[in-house]
Amino acid sequence: MERRGLTILYTGNGKGKTTAALGQALRAVGHGFSVCVVQFIKGRWPTGEAKACASLAGLEFHVTGSGFTWKQSPEESRRAAEEGWALAEGKIMSGAFDLVVLDELTYVINYGLVAEGRILEVIRRRPPGVHLVVTGRDASPALVREAELVTEMREVKHPYAEGVKAQPGIEF
Ligand code: ATP
Ligand code: MG
Questions:
Q1: What is the DSSP code string of the chain?
Q2: pTM (2 decimals)?
Q3: Is residue 60 annotated as part of the catalytic site, yes or no?
Q4: What is the whole-number distance in angstroms between the Cα of residue 25 and the centre of ligand 1?
Q5: Which of 120, 129, 164, 170 is the most buried (most CB within 10 A)?
Q6: Selection from 24, 45, 46 nearest residue 33 by Cα
Q7: Catalytic residue among 3, 13, 125, 155
Q8: What is the pLDDT of residues 23-46, one digit of tens each?
Q9: Nearest Cα to 12, choosing from 111, 106, 129?
């Protein structure tokens, strides 16, 4: 049976988008899939997922973007996003991966760092068997139209509202 590559999108303001994408990646690795994860917003600390994935066979993990965008000039942000997208595009189009996770890609589109049309074109032209998982808040209408599977995480409660700070193993 020929495999149909899906575009899966996790969006919304509730917690769970990145962790859902990583769960999907883990499930795929279990079936012997070749998986590539590209994260578009590099934080200050190495995350638990970056550490765990480093020792996982069958999974490549990349962190791109150079930190917090509001501390950079627009040119620096754009250059970092361009580099990240070039890497992701190469991985997607190579056909070497069964599943590619594009974590926080919506920010790259929403901040206008890479033209949305270029990203949509790669999603459409990719080898047909490649599954994609895209995450990030405020997915654009065009991205929602393009995806076949869209789940919106909706915040019902978050301990942040009670002043609980981000904790290792839970938030990063
Ligand atoms: P996770 O990585 O835990 O799956 P996420 O990908 O859905 O969360 P992002 O929008 O990428 O969340 O935000 C990244 C950080 O913000 C994470 O540390 C996450 O726990 C935290 N966060 C997510 N949702 C909320 C919220 N509604 N209020 C406060 N902090 C949040
Ligand atoms: Mg996230």
A1: ------EEEEESSSS-HHHHHHHHHHHHHHTT--EEEEESS--SS--HHHHHHTT-TTEEEEE-S-S-GGGS-HHHHHHHHHHHHHHHHHHHHHS--SEEEEETHHHHHHTTSS-HHHHHHHHHHS-TT-EEEEE-SS--HHHHHH-SEEEE---S--GGGGTPPP-TTTT-
A2: 0.95
A3: no
A4: 18
A5: 120
A6: 24
A7: 13
A8: 999 999 999 999 999 999 877 788
A9: 106
Give me the amino acid identity at 109: I
Q: How many angstroms separate the CA atoms of 113 and 73, rounded?
A: 12
Q: Which domains does the chain have, with CATH numbers?
A: 7-152 (3.40.50.300)
38-47, 104-113, 137-146: the lowest-pLDDT one: 38-47
78 belongs to the catalytic site:
no
Task: Tell me which residue has its CA closest to atom 13 in ligand 1.
Answer: 15
Question: Cβ–Cβ contacts within 10 Å for residue 55, how many?
Answer: 7
Average pLDDT over every residue of 110-134? 97
Kindly report the backbone phi and psi dihedral angles of residue 151, in degrees, each rounded to the nearest multiple of 5, phi listed first.
-125, 130
Using CA atoms, how far apart are residues 79 and 121, in angstroms rounded to an integer?
Answer: 20
Ligand 1 and 94: CB distance under 6 A: no
Only one residue has tokens 């970056």, namely: 50
